[in-house]
Design a protein that fits this description.
The complex is a heterodimer of chains A (440) and B (676).
Chain A: E1 6-8, H1 27-33, E2 43-48, H2 55-58, E3 64-65, E4 83-90, H3 97-104, H4 117-125, E5 133-138, H5 165-173, H6 180-208, H7 213-230, E6 240-242, H8 265-281, E7 287-292, E8 300-301, E9 309-312, H9 313-317, H10 326-351, E10 353-354, E11 357-358, E12 363-368, E13 385-387, E14 398-406, H11 408-417
Parallel strand pairs in A: 2-7, 2-12, 4-14, 5-7
Antiparallel strand pairs in A: 1-6, 3-14, 4-13, 8-9, 10-11, 12-13
Chain B: E1 3-4, H1 15-18, H2 45-55, E2 73-78, E3 87-94, E4 103-108, E5 113-118, E6 121-131, E7 134-138, E8 147-150, E9 153-154, E10 158-159, E11 188-191, H3 194-205, H4 235-254, H5 268-284, H6 290-306, H7 310-323, H8 325-328, E12 329-332, E13 335-337, E14 340-342, H9 345-356, H10 363-371, H11 377-389, H12 394-405, H13 425-444, H14 450-455, E15 458-459, H15 463-468, E16 478-479, H16 492-497, H17 506-517, H18 542-551, H19 553-567, E17 581-582, E18 585-586, E19 590-596, E20 599-604, H20 606-614, H21 617-632, H22 637-652, H23 657-663, H24 668-671, E21 672-674
Parallel strand pairs in B: 2-9
Antiparallel strand pairs in B: 1-10, 2-5, 3-4, 3-6, 6-7, 6-8, 11-12, 13-14, 14-21, 15-16, 17-18, 19-20
Classes of the chains: A alpha/beta (440), B alpha+beta (676).
Amino acid sequence: MGMRGYLSRRGLLRFAGMSALSLPLMRVLLESEAALAAEPAKRALLVYYPDGNIASRFFPATAGALPTLPFITSPLTPWLSNVALVRGLEYRVTGSHEAGAAFCLTGTAKADQRYSLDSYLGDRLGGSSPKKVLRLGVGSNFQSGADKLVSYLSSGALATIQDSPRAAFLEVFGSQAASPADAAKVAAGKKSVLDFALSELQSLQQRLGALEKTKLDEHLTALRELERRLGSVVGECRPDVSMRGLEFPEGETSYPKSFERNEHFGLIGEIMMDIMVQALACGVMPVGLLQWSHAVSPTSFDFQGGPGVAKEHHGISHYGGDPNGADADLFAACQRWYMEQVAYLLAALSKVKIGERTLLDDTVVFVTTELGDSDRHDFSDVACLVASGTQGRLKVGQALAVDKLSYNHLLVTILQSMGLEDDTFGDKDLGAGPIKELIA
Amino acid sequence: MAYAASGAPYSYKLESHMGKPATTIFSPAASPSERPDARCSQRAPWILVLALAMLAGCTKPYFRPRGPSSSAAVLIVRGLAQVDHDEVKLRAFRLPERESPGLEQVTPRGALQLEARLAPGRYLLQLDYLKAGVSALSSSTCPQPAEFDLQVGENVVTIPLCDAAGQPLPPTEASCQADGPEPLGQRVLRRLTRAEYQKTVESLAGVDTDVTADFPKEVKSHGFDNLSDLLVVTDAHAEAYLTAAGKVAAKVAAALDRHVTCQDGESEEDCASRFIRSFGPKTFRGVVSDDEHARLLVVFKQGREASATLAGAIELVVQAMLMSPRFLYRHELGVAAGDHFALTSWEIASALSYLYWGTMPDERLFSLAESGELAKPEVIAAEARRLFEDPRGRELTDRFAASWLGADLVLGLNKDQELYPDFTSSLREKLLQETKSFFTEAVLARNATFADLFTAPHTVGDPELAKHYGVGEASLPATLPAEQRLGLLGHASLLASYADANATSPIKRGAFVLERLFCQTLPPPPPGLDIKPPPRDPAATTRERFAAHSQSPACSGCHVRIDGAGFGMEDLDAVGRFQTEQAGKPVDATGRLVGIDGADRDFRGSAELSRLVAGSPTARQCLVTQLSRFSTGTLGAPAACAAGGLQAAFSAGNYNLKQLFLAIPTQSAFVKRRGE
């Protein structure tokens, strides 16, 4: 099918087109209508943006309820009652961009213990969903970004983040609207293929004993998970994602690929945000991760819809010491643009109606970055925020100031706002318990 | 470097040196990119010594223990060829007197081992490598004394070696079986990389589109994307493999005549069975067992129920084969052969074809595998030459050059467009191609030696490249000004990759030179150190900006080494163009290589650095280490074991590069694997 214009599906959609059954129900809507106020959120959307920030232009000057937002966060003013900012959180890690990227969703500096928040939440909450986590990126793998990705699986391996809008759409909503009978045949075929692969793996593992056990265990787990997902179902859903007039051919070998073109960074971001929100709305997965570019970002902010800063993002993140100087202004304009995208996401979530409520009421949004101050390359005053509905367990609509508090407390806060009882996350020595002021 | 001495019939081992290898230099989660730009060394030297000590075990093919002797303690120092030298001197001081040497023995260059006989007792051993009459490396400068109790018969000891400053040699990380008869490789499953998968399905099924675009990217370490520990199958891989298998299988089914033609009167099942017998071994790169055959027929029958055609059912069988670990992994497991495992001839066929071609074996390799001929060393050597000299052989040199040097980073660079408007994506692709082609031609066409890589005055390319290098619009190959740049270190792919967006970076360049060319291990800065990079300052040269940083006592320990190497390349700018001025001031391109080959060497400019690298024994060894990492897909012991033997082959071949690449499969570690 053509990828220009709109990608849309009419009629029943099955995840990856594999389902033998179809459940004609609006999955999200039914389950959510029953939700009561202060119920834990059922979904999480994690957003990463690169290269740190300028705290004095990100956080409100004074803490308290419904604060006045400064330049960088001002695009969130319409969502003031849905947002909470905590100034004074710090990463307990040493190093630079890459160390921060590996820390920001894992809460640990220990390389062998990385298990990021998206993966953990997906494993805890996604048992019955077609997908546990949907990870989308905007240029997140572009230009060696793979070494700087933020998401880690329970095995510690780097998770894959999909940067291609075309592949993302097909991954989420399937490639063909097959008839139920055809779909059943396809599903049976896939099952017999996977059964064979599983039996091969098992006999290999039996032969090898301890040799390469970790590798084969992970492979087995992956196949079983795939088998489970092929059997799961998305209800009726009509995803309708505009490709903004862009074309993303399959099997590209050119460089950069169509979905890595700097001039389309903003448009591709919008497409990915649309896919993400619709996938959440369709109940494809309980957890989404959106990664904008990557640490030491090469994005030049003169793309369509951007702030017209024709400079490499990481270059200007070193703004020369004066947070209000001319160079800092350029960087602040870029970081402000990222907050505009957060506002776009919040708006999109709030447009999905669930009875009297919206998808935003049911979702915890978490926005973070890998450094504190971009110029100093430190890990203090990390410019992160959370957002959700006003009636949820997360107490939004406020700005807090804390004194050099470990960032891990915020990660625990997110878990608890989603009804999990974890008291620590990541490195348990980096702080137990939530930030109490944020929990209703 | 360290050496073991041995004889017969008793053996004695220093556990304190030979204990658990602390050489986990590589861990999957600690990729080199996580290292901040600035770093300082606090590494305990003994760890390096330990790493070196482990190498001793790799060199065993090059000595033969003497038969039972009288009452003497026998010492045999081996692996001499691994360090460039004029002569090696071994002295043994009897303890506790520590007086004049109880033994002094000198062995000239070219010997592979040194033998000595002593009265049993406790000794301080001193091993010196002499170059032009000067001790370049010695055990006496190492922190710990080389004291040993030597007993009657064989003595296995390890003697660490350090340079004049007491720094151990850059390690060839290693831990071979110190007491085994010869270096052995590792039994391993090596998942196909994306590139290998793609090339394999092209060979197997004539696929002509990229079916791997959505495969997760390999995680790189030390520039290599083929490290077997990192090549795992996650959910995302499994899903992507299933999709790709569907595409490949459809391609096979669409041209089924090419693979099988059902006979008149033959049942469909028999026809499918014949297909499995012919297509299966190619896909699995080995024998399809009866059990596998039966299970594939089950898949066929299930497929036939759902599919209207025979081809549809065969398609499903192909999908199943492609999802099997037999297809997805290169098996290097071997079969038990006494105290080790020997790769099967099928495994050898794959090991050869993936090494030289990055894809599955061809018909000839398969038939040699089937007949068992490939188990013969002379057949392996002949096939290695055939594959390498085939046009596809440049797959190896291209891939190795791009990953060893990190030249492929250039594709992903964003330079300041105001400063470098000509640094376009078209140019970046040409720069990568330049480095690949230069290296490949050097190895395969020019019969070049190691030194030629760094001293060649020419390069290859087109007018755009020539313009970038300031040699006019002439088409390359052209001779470049030798006072400006020589060989690989003059390649803009590297100079631009190891630089910032708008300025040169002595740290990135220095770390590149030390890590990639000299195989030094640079640790991250100590915790708590302020590692803020120097601020941008258009009025200051790069050297001025970084000066404070290499003067700070907390950093200088390491940055004297790193920046010392990097400052000397200041005459080539952030996109690799020659420059004489920076920030309105003359460029100062004086640099210093600290503690390389046992000495500090001052130099000025990239071309002079190139000459130093060209003549450095350590750099020569490092190339072999890097090639071993690449060919074994490991960073640790197996790579070092393979490197041990290759070093000798490299030296014996007068550092001819083609011979080095051809020697890889002739190492015993290539076909023999450890049994544990």
